[in-house]
């Protein structure tokens, strides 16, 4: 039967790409009861990247609950799939050892191990002698510890894909090879286009959902419809030696990131895989359509030093002959996290690509997540970190992809010590007060493509950072900025915040229906609110300011794409215009108990508490510039946000700094913003709260107005009647010395009940502070918290802690309203 004869005229779902990810989604869709599915592969199954993958099945290494559970699901599926399909996956739980040669990596791995044990991963810290017993071929010189995961191991990527494909076929999914997809067909549906089908080399298929699983071709397919998937192929290497006597085919996988290598038995020889520190992009102008089961010519000159370093860890490989030396393409995203979910600008277009060399070990769990998302319309895991909507158009640019992929691949095996940053692709967006921040000694960091101040060394000084898990010299600068906001006044640039102007005859009605708070009420008022899904899950956490018939919507930088897409999906045929004004707008924050005095010295407007109460928004003039002044705070003090055209922001900044000397003003960076907001227990979407949380669970019920009709209202009412058994709580270490960075485990009476989602150091509270999830057998109440003895596991050490449902700093918000 020809490919055209195999192709139906219509299917509910069309999957583009027959690698392990596409096969897994097809398999899991069938198990969700969706069998009207066609998987279309341009050549043969596995012909892209899957066929040459090394086949590691490693769960260790992530402090993301979503990614850890994706890997755990994969491992479990690989072990049981043969019983269902009759085809082996080649999974062998031979164990994996992660080697450690320095104290920074040891600290990182201890924190990771603590977090992943809570999720059910068996992982043990072992010493060099135990490592040598398990993997006697390695030279243990310089190694101080290892982390052994006995349930991990290896899998055969081709066998796994074929087993998944058979499982899908057995349940009714149609898989067609030798058919390429040239285009996705769409029609306009309200404010956003919608998928209607695909155009293939064998004819059109009408469908409701398309899933782009095209691997290293995903970017090219997505660009045809404005879907941003900035994955880029790069060279990836491994070799297999000739037979080495005495190699145990059931021996563990051994990884030594400091030597850039991973090692395992293969066909009687040793596989030596490489993640070299100086990587190379491949085919920047696009992957050839006919590239199948392809290899690349190796760059011996570039690779030789890294390869020698890797092989020196397992000296027996240096004396064995080389049976195979392989170079093939692997694709990577700018942040080395996958691109998953419904495209922000095209309804019905899903993406599952950009797996960053962990596609095999992620395939089972990722397939389940995407299939469940398509079937129910809502993901059942936190997807804020992997949502394809987080990517931005500038990340598609050729030079950006070239530079970034070489860096992220080169850092695959680097330690994740606090203070380590990516350096390529910087400065895409420049704050309107960039020069002023630099003059103030700002330590600049990348914030969604913007250069922003993390902290300030002082006027005319150069900020220096040495990555570390411990205290650093610049902590004194951080503390001074924190205390300036608590005791005097701080000036913070927040121009990177996602800012949208919403207008039109129906703007108020649409925003009222989308927002859980009452936003279409009094003019010149700002409302803090959430946007919810029909199930009550939080989709956005933001502010809406009503200015007559205009509304200003402000969300966090990381939620930019998702927030914009969510609003556009709600518009339908309403008379609403949404304008992204982020790049045209400067946002300067003046925060602290003396902020009113400072602004009063610069404007004729009446800023008294009676005339300008909390949540007021009015146009005022500072330094000859008309701007929107909003009385709101994200640090827990009296404060104001100033919105103004970017071309005037520097003038206002300079005026604030000059006048602010008399009021104790300091420029303040994002490091202090984080510590200040966590002392006040203010939430940050994508960090403390996500799409699986509800307003009640997150402690945000105060922001909901049940007198209005909004998306998710019924779910909110249902949860009030039957509360969930988890809650977001504030956590403070009672010992002032340990530091928290997030992902530490929270214990009640010695039993793990949650983990710290984000953390900082609370200079006012006198210890590390954070927001954590806490789960109970019943509703999480103040009494349940008070009856427990609380600790936080910090890298294996249990530290006493205090927990609270209310903010520990200024719980009544008296300072905010003063």
UniProtKB/TrEMBL annotation:
InterPro entries for this protein: FAD-dep_OxRdtase, FAD/NAD-bd_sf, FAO_M, GcvT/YgfZ_C, GcvT_C, GCVT_N, TrmE/GcvT-like
Domain GCVT N-terminal: 434-707
FAD dependent oxidoreductase domain location: 12-373
Source organism, top-level taxon: Bacteria
Stored SUPFAM superfamilies: Aminomethyltransferase beta-barrel domain, FAD-linked reductases, C-terminal domain, FAD/NAD(P)-binding domain, Folate-binding domain
Location of the Aminomethyltransferase C-terminal domain: 727-810
Pfam families, per the entry: DAO (PF01266), FAO_M (PF16350), GCV_T (PF01571), GCV_T_C (PF08669)
Family of the protein in this entry: Belongs to the GcvT family.
Official protein name in the record: FAD-dependent oxidoreductase
Organism encoding this protein: Knoellia locipacati
């Amino acid at each position: 039967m020809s490919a055209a004869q195999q192709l139906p005229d219509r299917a509910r779902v069309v999957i583009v790409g027959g690698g392990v990810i596409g096969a897994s989604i097809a398999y899991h869709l069938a198990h969700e009861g969706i069998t009207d599915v066609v998987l279309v592969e341009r050549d043969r199954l596995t012909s892209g990247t899957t066929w040459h993958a090394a086949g590691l099945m490693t769960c260790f290494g992530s402090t993301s609950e979503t990614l850890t559970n994706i890997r755990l699901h994969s491992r479990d599926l690989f072990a049981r799939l043969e019983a269902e399909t009759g085809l082996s996956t080649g999974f062998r739980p031979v164990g994996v050892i992660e080697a450690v040669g320095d104290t920074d990596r040891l600290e990182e791995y201890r924190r990771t191990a603590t977090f992943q044990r809570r999720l059910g991963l068996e992982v043990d810290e072992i010493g060099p002698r135990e490592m040598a017993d398990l993997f006697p071929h390695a030279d243990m010189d310089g190694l101080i510890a290892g982390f052994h995961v006995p349930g991990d191991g290896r899998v055969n990527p081709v066998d796994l894909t074929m087993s998944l494909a058979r499982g899908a076929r057995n349940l009714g999914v149609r898989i067609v090879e030798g058919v390429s997809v040239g285009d996705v067909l769409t029609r306009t549906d309200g404010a956003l286009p919608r998928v209607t089908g695909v155009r293939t080399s064998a004819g059109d298929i009408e469908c409701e959902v398309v899933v782009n699983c095209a691997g290293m071709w995903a970017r090219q397919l997505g660009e045809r419809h404005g879907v941003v998937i900035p994955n880029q192929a790069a060279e990836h290497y491994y070799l297999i030696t000739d037979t080495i006597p005495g190699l145990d085919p059931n021996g563990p996988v051994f990884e030594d990131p400091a030597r850039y290598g991973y090692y395992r038995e293969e066909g009687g020889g040793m596989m030596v895989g490489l993640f070299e520190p100086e990587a190379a992009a491949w085919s920047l102008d696009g992957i050839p359509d006919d590239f199948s089961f392809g290899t690349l010519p190796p760059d011996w000159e570039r690779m030789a030093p890294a390869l020698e370093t890797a092989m020196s860890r397992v000296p027996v490989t240096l004396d064995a002959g080389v049976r195979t030396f392989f170079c093939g393409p692997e694709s990577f995203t700018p942040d080395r996290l996958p691109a998953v979910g419904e495209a922000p600008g095209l309804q019905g277009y899903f993406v599952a690509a950009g797996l960053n060399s962990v596609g095999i070990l992620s395939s089972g769990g990722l397939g389940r997540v995407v299939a469940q998302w398509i079937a129910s319309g809502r993901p059942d895991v936190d997807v804020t970190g992997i949502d394809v909507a987080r990517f931005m158009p500038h990340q598609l640019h050729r030079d950006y992809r070239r530079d970034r992929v070489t860096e992220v691949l080169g850092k695959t095996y680097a330690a994740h010590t606090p203070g380590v940053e990516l350096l390529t692709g910087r400065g895409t967006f420049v704050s309107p007060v960039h020069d002023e921040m630099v003059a103030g000694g700002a330590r600049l960091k990348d914030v969604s493509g913007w250069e922003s101040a993390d902290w300030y060394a002082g006027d005319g000084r150069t900020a220096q950072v040495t990555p570390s898990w411990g205290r650093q010299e610049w902590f004194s600068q951080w503390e001074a900025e924190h205390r300036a906001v608590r005791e005097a006044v701080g000036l913070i640039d927040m121009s990177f915040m996602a800012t949208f102007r919403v207008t039109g005859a129906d703007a108020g009605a649409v925003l009222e229906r989308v927002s859980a708070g009452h936003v279409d009420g009094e003019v010149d008022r700002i409302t803090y609110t959430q946007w919810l899904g029909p199930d009550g899950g939080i989709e956005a956490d933001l502010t809406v300011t009503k200015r007559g018939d205009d509304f200003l919507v402000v969300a966090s930088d990381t939620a930019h794409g998702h927030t914009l897409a969510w609003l556009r999906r709600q518009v339908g045929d309403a008379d609403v215009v949404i304008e992204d004004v982020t790049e045209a707008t400067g946002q300067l924050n003046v925060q602290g108990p003396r902020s009113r005095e400072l602004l009063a010295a610069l404007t004729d407007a009446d800023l008294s508490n009676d005339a300008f109460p909390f949540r007021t928004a009015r146009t005022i003039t500072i330094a000859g510039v008309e701007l929107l002044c909003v009385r709101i705070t994200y640090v827990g003090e009296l404060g104001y946000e100033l919105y103004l055209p970017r071309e005037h922001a520097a003038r206002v900044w300079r005026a604030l700094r000059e006048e602010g000397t008399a009021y104790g003003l300091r420029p303040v960076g994002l490091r202090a913003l984080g510590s200040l907001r966590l002392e006040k227990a203010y939430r940050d979407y994508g960090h403390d709260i996500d799409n699986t949380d509800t307003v009640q669970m997150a402690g945000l019920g105060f922001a909901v107005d049940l007198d209005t009709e909004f998306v998710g209202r019924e779910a909110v009412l249902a949860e009030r009647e039957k509360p969930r058994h988890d809650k977001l709580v504030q956590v403070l270490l009672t010992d002032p010395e340990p530091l928290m960075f997030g992902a530490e485990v929270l214990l009640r009476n010695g039993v793990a009940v949650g983990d710290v989602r984000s953390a900082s150091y609370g200079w006012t509270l006198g210890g590390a502070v954070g927001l954590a999830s806490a789960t109970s057998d019943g509703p999480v109440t103040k009494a349940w918290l008070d009856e427990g003895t609380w600790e936080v596991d910090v890298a294996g050490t249990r530290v006493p802690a205090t927990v609270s449902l209310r903010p520990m700093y200024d719980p009544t918000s008296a300072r905010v309203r003063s």
